[in-house]
Amino acid sequence: MVTSKPQEKLFGVRVETIRSLLRVIIFISIAGAAISSRLFSVIRYESIIHEFDPWFNFRATKYLVTHSFYDFLNWFDDRTWYPLGRVTGGTLYPGLMVTSGVIWHILREKLALPVDIRNICVMLAPAFSGLTAIATYFLTKEMKDSNAGLLAAIFMGIAPGYISRSVAGSYDNEAISITLLMATFYFWIKAMKLGSIYFATLTALFYFYMVSAWGGYVFITNIIPLHVFVLLIMGRYSHRLYTAYSTWYALGTLASMQIPFVGFLPIRSNDHMAALGVFGLLQLFSFGFYVKSKVTGKQFRNFLVFSSIFVSFLGVSALFALTALGWIAPWTGRFYSLWDTNYAKIHIPIIASVSEHQPTAWPAFFFDTNMLIWLFPAGVYLCFQELRDEHVFIIIYSVLGSYFAGVMVRLMLTLTPIICVSAAIALSKMFDVYMNLVDVLKSNGEDNSEETGSGKKSKAKRPSTNDKLFSIVSKLAVLLSFAFYLVYFVLHCTWVTSNAYSSPSVVLASRGPDGSSSIIDDYREAYYWLRMNTPEDAKVMAWWDYGYQIGGMADRTTLVDNNTWNNTHIATVGKAMCSSEEVAYDILKKHDVDYVLVIFGGLLGYSGDDLNKFLWMVRISEGIWPEEVHERDFFSDKGLYKVDGEASKTMKDSLMYKMSYYRFTDLFGGRDGIDRVRNQAIPLSQSPKLNVLDEAFTTQNWLVRIYKVKDLDNVGRDLHSATKFDESANDMKRKRIIKKPALDLRE
Amino acid sequence: MIGQRSFIFSILLAIVYILGIASAESRQLDKFQVLVKYDAELYNPGQASSGTPETTNLIKELQQRGYELSYESYESENTTLFLEGEPKYDHLVLLPSSSRTSGSQKTFNQRELLKFINTNGNILVVGDSDSFLPDAVRLLLNEIGIFPSPKGYKYVDHFNTKKGVPQITNSNIVNKHVLPELPSKGISYKGSSALLSNNKLAFPIIKGTSTSFTTNKFEDTVTEDSIWSYGEQGFLAVGFQALNNARLVWLGSGSLVNNEILDWVFQAKKVLKLQFVQHYHNDRPQFINPKTYRIKDNIFYTVGISEYVNGRLAPYKVDNDKEKLQIEFTMLDPYQRINLKPLGSGSSKGDNTLDTYIYYANFTIPDRHGIFTLDLDYKLNGLGYISDKRVVNVRHLANDEYKRSWEIPNSWFYVASASLVVVGWFFFIVNFLYISNTNIAKKTV
């Protein structure tokens, strides 16, 4: 690479100018690549919000732009968690909604572009991915140089690990949080390097933005103190570090407490104690250095020993005491499950039931980052070689990120940036070495060009023509192979993005046997039916996975949703689903449920249906009602999860089973029904009967089935005997003898 | 010319048509349509004196009330209760039958009878110990929890008799809403009894005495099998009111027919109407029935309840202590359950006619946000049901509704210390830079 000299010119333009111009062009191309690769879903399907959580964010954003900001902040949501309601304004991270709200207002009022809020929400994640690339560039530039930065930027732009959460329509907190994560880290490195209050304040500012946007801010809250802590242990205390950290911690903590959902957590929750502890430690260090400058070495050693023992004892005991007194919240379950992957499975079924909380399978690393995953350790190794303060940060981030990504699938997302950065460092180092053809060529012509390079090994001895050829060939071989890898990387990223991460999961695509593709739009069909055919205040009970979608698309009140804040309420719904009709009816009536919605994939072969999630419902409700619900009862005699003729009685009596297979065998014209997900036959003779529910709607592919809860019987019977009565009227059997009924005493 | 004539003709036709509808409607509105099902062997509506004295008495009573009576025999093959899905009759009187079967199985069966109740029709069933109830009627009664004794079973009480006939007195009356008292001090009762399930909507009107039983063996030793009911578990008259307020009465004998019971079953008394429900914040009475309250708000809740008296609405006063109106403020479980207090008679229409009695409750919302229901559920046996559910949101305090820090004495200490730090910091800087150590300032410059 051409080393910059002030006077160097190319075609009469200063090289430096050309460089910036090139850089801008590269940035624009990177942003273009990042954004366009995220548009597959819009092109394939339409401008639609994806999956589950984004539907809530979208609904909240709509609320924000139709109400005032303060209304949003104080929003009491009566459409979810009926009848508990949810203090939505105080229990969400408003950053995402406010961001899109601000963009919407600016476009509308300043630029006179009345864009639909939905399109802003759909396009927000791709737009921010461009910014992420830029932030990554700056971060990597701090680590090595701008060449590594550009590589990191393009990696970040198209790495599937990040795209998985930021395709168009994936309107989730993570969409903007990764941008903020990288920006915060960049400013932190800058602040720490320079000891600058200005950059530390910017760190705090972006940290605040991050806190407002994603619960993952705790990652920053812990990794920066850890960085500082490691530096302190390495004996690298400096006033720059002190200034940067103290400024960030004080401002950042105060700012983060302004988010209602966070509130007093930064001073009460264990997750935040590390930051506080390091803050205290820094003060002690600072004080120690002050004392050291005033007293002799021996005195200082004594002082150090006593004070450190005293202080650590005090700190640890205070932590224990405060936790025991309940002043500091104990670690949350999600935290425990980070360390012990079995913890959730045993103690908190609701956390374990979420698929993205499962441990990562190893191919996922390769799938999500391709060649970067093996460049990643090389980059970390290079950081070890140089080991400046900022490299320590990369090392810590890599270690923590790798561990967390191994524990939970979703945390792949936080690992991806550091993989990109490390890989870029490694690759750019390699390019530095192998792309430097200058001296080879130069030494070919004249031998007096010693000053150009900065001590390259090849320059030490004068190579013969043979050696030169050899070196050129080897360099070219390496370069070409890496060029191939890079091209392959781009192909892989595009392929993964297009095939794995661009499905909205609200609309499904399937291929027929002849290769023709068809769209399965049952979800929206069902939600639209609810929206158009049920009273506006109807309450819909469904498993919590579909809560946000029902709220967003059908605009009906739900009992539980993906914001799983109340385990008991979820367990109640689970109990209603897994109990017999009589028990379930009481629960339904108590909660004023009008409609029950189930997802049934048996006809289509869609494996993510409610019957496959059913055991989680059982487990979660068993956690609350261990006397009434037993997981064992739902297995067949042989201990298998069966839905066919061998299914246990409890299973067949459960509301979920009945709702799934009600009238299912009718489709098979007098033969047993075949469930294509579980590959089991539903016997015609055991086709379930429903007493407390009426079938209201079933979608085209039977993916969504909606049932209406019957009213109380007008003449005071239970609904079971009411159905019996209606049926008995058809076959008029005349009883000759009137028998005395066996009745309880009338009260 | 022809066109004009046909035009006039069509107008005339239209007028006739409208009049026709109007007259048909007025006939409908004027009189209640009553269908009397009878057995030709026991009663002939053409001859007034053909039936038992009780039956003729009942028919006379019905005629005096101005009902439009239709008669159909149980054997009749073309009995229909519905026309185009709408009930043809308001009330149904089912007299005893000599046969268990009835004609027109398709249109007169237990299912049709239940449908009749579900479409607000009222039914009076008169039983008898010497005759049958047609299967359709019996199965309907069984379905709602009334099990009359079959033909041949008689109510016996050896301890309260007059000339060998069991006597019942006012002390046998269970439900005073339906039957405040017997017409005479005691009446001789010759009839059947019924068992009653624990269906909450069915309730006894007259029970047997504690020494009574119902049996079909009068000469032999009485056995378990020959007894239908014992003592106070045998009921002589049973009332039933469905959730839609349709009423049914089963009487063990025609001798129990009396005005009070007829009034009740044909919706002439104890029919309540909820005139209005209002709730509002104590301080903001101008905003009636708001959707949202805040925790710890004070709510004023008021209802107006009327009773139909002689076809008019009149104030209904809940005077019995046991029968207090209650309002529940519920979210899954009741957080508040409050007796409504009487406020006085009022008018529901805003004019001077006092047609409703107003009750109120004044209470504080609990310190719990959520979606609450103001649940008025007044279902007493014998009275028309009143139920009303109003869903209101109870929201949490908004960000600007908390007390400011200076209003809380506990915070003064912290506010003071915080401001002290600020002031102290300022003085420290001034001192550090300009007063105490001038050397440093010089050095840095």
UniProtKB/TrEMBL annotation, chain A:
Pfam families: STT3, STT3-PglB_core
Gene3D superfamilies the UniProt entry points to: 3.40.50.12610
Cofactor: Mn(2+); Mg(2+)
Parts of the chain that traverse the membrane: 21-43, 91-107, 119-140, 146-164, 185-208, 214-235, 247-267, 273-291, 303-329, 364-384, 391-409, 469-491
GO cellular component entries: oligosaccharyltransferase complex
Pathway: Protein modification; protein glycosylation
Coiled-coil residues: none
Molecular-function annotations in GO: dolichyl-diphosphooligosaccharide-protein glycotransferase activity; metal ion binding
Chain's role: Catalytic subunit of the oligosaccharyl transferase (OST) complex that catalyzes the initial transfer of a defined glycan (Glc(3)Man(9)GlcNAc(2) in eukaryotes) from the lipid carrier dolichol-pyrophosphate to an asparagine residue within an Asn-X-Ser/Thr consensus motif in nascent polypeptide chains, the first step in protein N-glycosylation. N-glycosylation occurs cotranslationally and the complex associates with the Sec61 complex at the channel-forming translocon complex that mediates protein translocation across the endoplasmic reticulum (ER).
Any one biological process term the GO annotation gives: post-translational protein modification
The protein, known as: Dolichyl-diphosphooligosaccharide--protein glycosyltransferase subunit STT3
Keywords: Endoplasmic reticulum, Glycoprotein, Glycosyltransferase, Magnesium, Manganese, Membrane, Metal-binding, Transferase, Transmembrane, Transmembrane helix
Residue intervals of the STT3/PglB/AglB core domain: 539-595
Keyword match Transferase: yes
Enzyme Commission number: 2.4.99.18
Subcellular location: Endoplasmic reticulum membrane
UniProt catalytic activity: a di-trans,poly-cis-dolichyl diphosphooligosaccharide + L-asparaginyl-[protein] = N(4)-(oligosaccharide-(1->4)-N-acetyl-beta-D-glucosaminyl-(1->4)-N-acetyl-beta-D-glucosaminyl)-L-asparaginyl-[protein] + a di-trans,poly-cis-dolichyl diphosphate + H(+)
Membrane topology per record: Multi-pass membrane protein
Residue ranges occupied by any Oligosaccharyl transferase STT3 N-terminal domain in the UniProt entry: 22-423
TrEMBL record, chain B:
Protein origin, superkingdom: Eukaryota
One GO term describing the cellular component: oligosaccharyltransferase complex
Bilayer disposition of the protein: Single-pass type I membrane protein
Domain OST48 middle: 283-435
Pathway, per record: Protein modification; protein glycosylation
Domain OST48 N-terminal: 55-267
Entries under InterPro entries matching the protein: DDOST_48_kDa_subunit, OST48_MD, OST48_N
TM spans (from-to): 412-435
Nucleotide-binding is among the record's keywords: no
UniProt-annotated location(s): Endoplasmic reticulum membrane; Membrane
Keyword entries, A-Z: Endoplasmic reticulum, Membrane, Signal, Transmembrane, Transmembrane helix
UniProt cross-references to Pfam families, sorted A to Z: OST48_MD, OST48_N
One of the protein's GO biological processes: protein N-linked glycosylation via asparagine
Signal sequence interval, chain numbering: 1-24
Subunit: Component of the oligosaccharyltransferase (OST) complex.
Family per similarity comment: Belongs to the DDOST 48 kDa subunit family.
Role played: Subunit of the oligosaccharyl transferase (OST) complex that catalyzes the initial transfer of a defined glycan (Glc(3)Man(9)GlcNAc(2) in eukaryotes) from the lipid carrier dolichol-pyrophosphate to an asparagine residue within an Asn-X-Ser/Thr consensus motif in nascent polypeptide chains, the first step in protein N-glycosylation. N-glycosylation occurs cotranslationally and the complex associates with the Sec61 complex at the channel-forming translocon complex that mediates protein translocation across the endoplasmic reticulum (ER).
Name of the molecule in the record: Dolichyl-diphosphooligosaccharide--protein glycosyltransferase subunit WBP1
Organism ancestry: Eukaryota, Fungi, Dikarya, Ascomycota, Saccharomycotina
